[in-house]
Write a structure and sequence with these properties.
185 residues, 16% helix, binds iron/sulfur cluster, alpha/beta, seven-stranded mixed beta sheet, two-stranded antiparallel sheet
């Protein structure tokens, strides 16, 4: 997608406790070309424009002062690397939020692109690699499959912070929309 400064977003959860440490604002980017069998969120695959939002639009949706961080998922966040970089930078530098990103890219694939590489400087926790249905995570760790690496890129968290004992959440919005989130294990 052309870089307009706006992010093509699938959906946002203003407050979640099962998508990383503490209470988090969760944003799902629209668009992914990996097509992992068994993907938990196939509606995010198309690259058609859905909701076009600025980083400020997204960050303003975090509900309340108890939000500890932002989790970026998808879809594939690194398909919009310039926009991802601006979002992460604003989250950390303007809103003092911790940052966690799920990606189907491997760490090595991220390193091979200069803009994607710059994003790493603003990520506390990276969960990388394609989802593999035959290797589903069976513990409480916040990843879909065991081939995915949980990379602690800063000292802000440790692995015990990435255990999500509840693993699932059902959120009912004021308009009646029901959102299921978390890990199916
Ligand atoms: S990378 Fe994630 S969103 Fe994309 S197909 Fe795989 S599991 Fe689904």
């Amino acid at each position: 997608m052309e870089d307009t400064g706006l992010i093509n977003v699938h959906s946002i959860i203003p407050s979640s406790r099962v998508n990383g440490p503490g209470t988090r604002l969760v944003v799902f980017f629209q668009g992914c070309r990996f097509d992992c069998p068994g993907c938990f969120n196939p509606d995010t695959h198309t690259f058609e424009k859905n909701k076009l939002l600025s980083p400020d639009d997204i960050l303003s949706k975090g509900s309340g002062e108890d939000i500890e961080g932002i989790t970026v998922s998808g879809g594939e966040p690194f398909e919009q690397p310039g926009e991802l970089l601006r979002l992460l930078k604003a989250a950390r530098e303007v809103h003092s939020l911790s940052t966690m990103v799920y990606t189907g890219n491997t760490y090595e694939e991220i390193l091979s692109d200069s803009v994607k590489y710059q994003c790493l400087a603003y990520i506390d926790v990276l969960i990388e690699g394609r989802f593999m249905q035959g290797k589903k995570e069976q513990t409480a760790l916040a990843r879909g499959s065991v081939n995915q690496r949980i990379m602690l890129l800063t000292g802000r968290y440790d692995f015990s912070d990435l255990e999500m004992p509840g693993k699932g959440e059902i959120i009912i919005s004021p308009d009646g929309t029901v959102t299921r989130t978390g890990f199916r294990g």
